[in-house]
Amino acid sequence: MSAHLIRADGDSVGRADRPLLVTVDGTPVAGVQGQTLATVLLADGQSHWRTGANGGRRGVFCGIGVCFDCVATVNGVPDVRLCRRPARDGDRVTTQNRSAAQ
Ligand code: FES
Predict the structure, then answer these.
(1) CATH number of the domain to which 62 belongs
(2) Which one of 10, 61, 75, 90 has the fewest CB atoms closer than 10 angstroms to its CB?
């Protein structure tokens, strides 16, 4: 499995993507309909978007909604599992930081 987005014009299946745009801490990130927010971020090259209590950087671990490592704030709602949340055009993702330094 590749974490990198295969553009529709380079995909041998011939699919037609419907693009969407989300923001991560205010920075626009492009994705396509059908991706989860985690896959939008992974395809953008982002491997972590949360800092845990011990300062460790966290992102996708299980990828199936069990571990809660991938949580972030989405449209003002905290602790959303990005691996389970379908991306919607205009979603606003805010990274979370729960390190002791905060
Ligand atoms: S990666 Fe485990 S819940 Fe999302």
Answers:
(1) 3.10.20.440
(2) 10
